[in-house]
User: Fold site-specific DNA-methyltransferase (adenine-specific) from Nannocystis exedens.
Amino acid sequence: MSDEAAPPRPRARIVLADNMDVLPGLPAGEFSLIYIDPPFNTGQTQRRAQLRTVRDADGDRTGFKGQRYRTIKLGERRYADVFDDYLEFLWPRLEQAHRLLAADGSFFLHLDYREVHYAKIACDQIFGRECFMNEIVWSYDYGGRSKSRWSAKHDNILWYARDPARYTFQYEAIDRIPYMAPGLVGPEKAARGKTPTDVWWQTIVSPQGREKTGYPTQKPLKILERIVVVHSRPGDLLLDFFAGSGSFGEAALRHGRDVVLVDQNPEAIEVMRRRLEFAAPTIEALGSLALATSEVAAAPASAADGEAPAAGPIEPPTPSSAGVQPEEDAGAAGSRCDDSPAASLGAPQREGSSAGASLAAPQDDDALASLAGEASARGAGVTLAATVRPSEAPASASQGPAAAEEVG
Assistant:
């Protein structure tokens, strides 16, 4: 029998708060990988309807084998995506991301054509132009087509390294994709496949798929898995402070990484609570938003025909392999951030290690509402602990230098 102990189960910490109330309290250089998918400043309210279908001969849609189904609207999730000065909103959050990155860490900023050009100028100033590694284009082919211009069917993901001479890039972890003309490369290469380039073809989350949470702007798990497995190592500590539906969190946990997830939308916290239930995350409501946790858990969802949404957890999909394409070797050393100490909110906490009081595990929405109300009464920093954790030190976020074999 092997004397090696099993690796600890990855931990998740979910925080309901304005991210600028959380980020300054996190220790500098703590996170090996930071990914954020902030609002795109579309100028609209983002909405996602929650639907259920039932068999009905007079229904409004046709399903499998021509059978008819009736659509029942259960509710709608939404958030405002309107900013008068988007860079003024984003800039201090980018500065915090730079401060929080480990010495060999990577930062990924996910936007679209509306703001990505302005955001890159900001990132060049904050991280340093020499720290810009790639612009990744996520391309998809879904939805309507414009009749007045070329239809926008891609997002932009900017990758910055904390130090362009030292960063994590696990080339062997990259998933392979088929050759478009396998007959031209020979059977061995055709069987192995090729690594992706900086253009990633991946469909959006299927409206009828198991992965769908019903949260607006949910991103595909495979995109986030590709980033996680190549740009971090098992046991690393990751951060997403625009966490939304928790896709990045699931990718991190499924691949053995610890993760901190922050969002100010109570609906996002509820989606993540159910989606990541398999990892027994701790949930915190900080400051004035502690009351919001109680409200979202206690309030019944809007439903048509008296139907309420199912309360059970969302079953996470089977994780897939993922990866990215290296373009060229790193250049000169990058700029360093101010590593001044900060009050530690820190890594995902074990039971009893939070600064706030620790509460028993909620078993359903009513219990969550009750505990959240108690948390609100006690004040900021109260932890809704989803499980009792064994006492042990949190995993370090530091890593060794990136592998030398960074070949195309």
